[in-house]
Fold this sequence. Notes:
There is one protein chain. This protein is of the alpha+beta class. It is built from 2 helices and 6 strands, in the order βββαβαββ. Helix 2 (83-94) links the parallel strand 4 and strand 5. The two termini are 15 Å apart.
Amino acid sequence: MKSISTTKAPAAIGPYAQGIIVNNMFYSSGQIPLTAEGQLVEGDIEAQTNQVFENLKAVLAAAGSSLDQVVKTTVFMKDMNDFAAMNDIYASHFGAHKPARSAVEVARLPKDVKVEIEVIALVK
């Protein structure tokens, strides 16, 4: 196993890694809408989802992967009524690529954010 860490995404704030590579697979920790400096992105689901994707792109790049290598995502949402707006932003980041996905509403997320996303991706 190889632990992945980058300063271009928020640092882990607990006993976990930003991501782990095992064989040719990358497993990210869930990313929430914090900037690389650790500042919470306030605002609507669109703003928060965009920041989550910036973080995912950073940890994927540090792992030697990218969004087009993602095979599975899990989306955790505070309010499923935000699904359509989140989905529009999600689709804009993936383009024609459509990884497998689960999306669930949860009672509460860290720092009371609206969205958290984790990915599993291939590493070439």
